[in-house]
Amino acid sequence: TQNIKLSVHLHAYGEGHQMLLSRDITAVALADAMRRDFVANVSHEIRTPLTVLSGFVETLQSIPLDEEERQSYLHLMSVQAERMQSLVADLLTLSQLEGSLPPGKHERTPLPELMAQVLSDARSLSSVLSGQGGDERGPVHELVFESSPPWVLLGVRSELLSAISNLVSNAVRYTPAGGRIQTKWSTSTDCVTFSVTDTGPGIAPEHLPRLSERFYRVDRSRSRETGGTGLGLAIAKHVVQRHGGELRIESQVGVGSTFMLVFPASRLETLSDQTH
Ligand code: ADP
After folding, report:
1. Reported pTM
2. pLDDT single digits (tens) 100-139
3. Which residues line ligand 1 (CB under 6 A)?
4. How far is the centre of ligand 1, averaged over its atoms, from the C-alpha of 218 (Å)?
5. Is the ipTM of this complex over 0.95?
6. What DSSP string runs through 223-270?
């Protein structure tokens, strides 16, 4: 099909349009390479937990284990199964996010309610990551969530929640215990911005342009350890772009990072507007 497409283009453009043609070939080849990369990445991401899982099944079948050992293998197996479930869920989310937002999909999403959910998830994640899942000592990070202004965002609630949650959970996952994570909403004449700032490891400038690509990771092992699928930032970027905005990242190694979702001001209403 690629050859046929190219010859059709050649015919259509004729001579004197060499530049257009070569740009077209590059675009087709690039899209093709990206698709191949994507499939290779997905296969790799799925193969790793599957290999671990089948290794454990074999051990359970062939070696006599006491109850405690058996339980610990079963626990490790369920962690791998959950990892595949998150990956498949993120892949589905991403494929649904392609394209622009259809008209009519503009729910009124009150920020205070949205942020209450994000904060509660961040607290749980922070305590789970301390290795004390569900313990009453609470989060191991200082979570500073400025009280959300009485604003309503026009957009798809579930998508906005997933973009914001991905940024906040990354801040929790990459910031060592004792670190600080701060969220903020602000406005200017043109935009409304959500930002999350952490005191994590920071990201070197050479990684920044590629960070929101699917499966691009600076530190593969940290991402795995904390349950990352490698798709969180790709999802956040797609969501904000579908809402007419953009993802911005500022970071300094050894100091921390700020991730921002910048929406056009037209997406904003104040809660009191509702009553008029
Ligand atoms: P992952 O599941 O690997 O976290 P993401 O798409 O959410 O996937 O993030 C891509 C990569 O960006 C991560 O693997 C990590 O290297 C880097 N990253 C994301 N957020 C942060 C952060 N707050 N601090 C440092 N590095 C981060």
Report:
1. 0.84
2. 787 777 899 999 999 999 999 999 999 988 765 545 556 8
3. 166, 170-171, 174, 198, 200-201, 203, 211, 216-219, 223, 228-234, 257
4. 7
5. yes
6. HHHTT--S-HHHHHHHHHHHTT-EEEEEEETTTEEEEEEEEEGGGEEE
